[in-house]
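note to self — DONT lose this again. spent like an hour looking for the file last time. sequence + predicted structure for the chain T wanted, 143 res
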Amino acid sequence: MIVVAAVIARDGLILACQRSRKSRFGLKWEFPGGKVQPGETPEAALERELNEELGVRAAVGPEIFRATHKYEQMREAVDLIFFAAHVGPSAVENRIFERIEWVKPEKLKQMDFLEADRELIEKLAGGMTLPGARCKEQRGNAG
């Protein structure tokens, strides 16, 4: 299974999203994103997921990290591709998460993130620099 996630930075902070308590891995923190559907590129999947989850049109930048993780609760391993992304100055709308927070990179290590995200968390907390992505549009679909 291929999953994509966005690392979105703004003003020195990174967007972290807490999974709904009713979902698999409830209340764990993650970066927004989701599964790549058949026929979709990873970038297109991430744009779709960010619109669905946060109500934004994102500019997906370069890939910044990859991880493969096998959760005990899942039949197959997850191949996770992380991209830098930019969402512009507009408000991010929480559509599915328990909570969303803009946090300092060093605070990420104190949050209960999903296992597959932890190696990237270490890099971000250690000062990893994110490449920029230019935002092409600020908000999701209006109607």
